[in-house]
Amino acid sequence: MTGRPATREEKYTAWALWTLAFVALWLTESAVGYTRDESVYFAAAESYSGWFRQLFHSPARALTDAAIVRAWDYNHEHPALMKTLFGLSHLLFHDTLGWMRSATAFRLPAFAMAALVPALSFLLGSALYGRTAGLFAALAFMLVPRQYFNSELACFDLAVAALWLLVVYCFWRALEDTRWGIACGVAFGLALAAKHNALFLPFVLTPFALWRAWSASEGEPETRSWLLRFVGVFASVAVLYGLLVLSLGGGEGFQRKFFLLSPHSLLFVSLAAGGAWTLKGLEKVNARVTRALVPIAAMAVLGPVIFYLHWPYLWHQPVDRTAWYLAFHAKHNHYAWFYLGTLLREPPFPLAYVLVKTALTVPTSLFVPMVTGFAALAARVLMGQFEKTRAWVAPVTMAEALVGVNAMASILVISHPQVPHFGGVKHWFPSMVFLGLLAGQAVSRGCAALVERLRARWPSLPGLAVSVPVFAVLLAPALVYSARVFPYGTAAYSELAGGLPGAATMGMQRQFWSSHVTGVLPWINEHAKPGARLFLHEVHGGSFRDYQHNGMLRPDLRAVGSPFDADIVAYQYHQEFREFEFNTWQAFGTRTPTMGLYLDETPQVVVYVRPESR
C-alpha cells in the first residue's frame, strides 16, 4: 500500500523501540571514548551555546556579524544543527541543572536522533513488508557494532542517516497525504542542517515523484499539461541559473553578484511562486499528481530556507560562506587508510572498497539477509525486463524501488574512486538503514514460507513459534559479538573477516578515531608518576582535555606532542603511523611494551614506559 498511515499499535511499538534504543545508548555511553571529531564538536557546541547566552542577555550585540563569527566560526566546515543541539543540551543538563557529566550532556541529542532509526525503520518496514520485517530491520540496525558505536557519539553520521530515513518516510507518506509533502521539505532542510550527505536526496527522490506523477496523469491531457508546466518551471529556472553563471564569467562572478536584491534571488522567488501556481492548478484536476509533486517543491523551497535560518554563521554573508562550505567538501582531504594490505593515500581508490568493507564488518547473520533481500529485489527488476520471465515474478512496486534505490545511493556515491575513502563504514550509513529493511523483508518472507510448510503438519502452529527462533538465530550472534567488542566498535570485524585477528592478517585498518585509548587509561591513572608526561598517540588535544574533565584521566598528567618528550607513550596501531612506535623504541631504548589493549589477542593500543620513569 502506498503511503498508508501507521496503526495505533505500530505507533506504540515505534515509540517503544525509540525508548529502548535511547535508554540503551544512555546507559552504555560512559564507557565510550572521545573521538577526535567528537571533541572538536564538544568545543564548537560550547562556543555556540555561549552565543545563545549572549543572545538572551544582549540580543542587539549578539546579532552583529562580529559576535556571530566569534562564536560560530569554529568548525564552520559543518552545518550547525547537531552541534547547536549538543551545546543547548550541555547548557541545560550540565551547566544549569548539573544532572549529567559534561560528555553525557553533549551526547544526549545524538542518542535521541540515532534512536529514530529503529523507530522509523519499524514504521516503514511494517507498512511495506509487514511487522515482522519492520521489527527485524529495527533491531538489526542497532546490533551492528559499528553502527551502535557511532550512535553513542556526539557526531553527525547517525543523525544524517536518521534524517535521510525521515525524508524518505515523509516522501512516501506524502503520496497519500499532502501535509506529509510539506513535512518532507522540512525534514530535508533539517537533513541539510545535519550534514552535506543530504544534498544527494533530491537526485534520489525526484525521479520517483515524476514517475508517480506521470503514471497518475495517464489519459488526462489537462493534468499532463499542468505537470509539464511544473517541470517547465523548474527546468527554466535551472537553465536561467546556468545562463547567469555563464554571463557573469563563471562561479566566482556568480558568487560575487549574488545578494538579496539580485537576479539570483529573483529566480529563487520565481521558482517558489511558479511551483505554487502549478501545484494549485494541478490540485483542481488531479490530487494524486499534486501529492506526488508537493515534496519536490517543498524540498526545493524549504530546504535552502531552513538551512540558512538554522546557521547564524550564514546570516550576514550567506553566499560566500555557503560557497566555502560546499567547496571544502568538494575538495575534502584524503586520509591514509589501510585496506587489504595496501595503504590507500590518494585516489583512485578500489571500486569494491565499500562492498568489501561492509561484508567484513557487518555480522554475517545480518549481512546474509541484507544480500538476500537486495538480490531478490534486483532479480525481480531484471526478470521483469524480459517477456519470457515477466510472468514469473510480481512487479516491483514504486515503494520497493524506493527502498532499493536508497539502499544503493550513498554506497554508490562513496564507491566512486575519486571520493575519499576513510572512516570505516560511517559515510554510507543511510544505505545501511535501507539494506536493513531489505533484510527484514527477506527474513519475513522466509518465516512465512516456513510457517506455511509447517502448518501442513501442524495446522494451528502460531507464526511466533517460527519467527521468534529465527530472530534468535540471526540476532543473537550479532548481540553477543556487539557485547564482546564494546566499547571498541571501530575494531569490529565479522565472521567473514575471521574476526579481529583475521582482519589484522588480511591487512585491514584495526581501529580509528583514537577512542580505544580508554582501554589503557585506568592503568595509566594507577601507575603514572605525579605530573607524568603522556604522549597519547592519535588522541586530539581536545580529547585529552575531555578525558580529564570527565574524570577518566588524572588531572595532573600532562600531554606532550612527541615520544621523545614523554614518560609514557600509548601507541595506537596504525600502519600509516608506524614511525611513532619506532620513535618510541628509540626514545625509550626498548621495544617491549609494558601493557596494552588486546582484543582477541590482536593489539589495538600498546603502552611503553620510559625506564627511568618506572
From TrEMBL:
A Pfam family: PMT_2
Matching InterPro entries: RgtA/B/C-like
Protein name in the entry: Glycosyltransferase family 39 protein
Keyword tags: Membrane, Transmembrane, Transmembrane helix
Domain of life: Bacteria
TM stretches of this protein: 12-28, 110-141, 153-174, 180-205, 226-246, 258-279, 291-311, 351-379, 391-416, 428-451, 463-483
Start and end residues of each Glycosyltransferase RgtA/B/C/D-like domain: 79-213
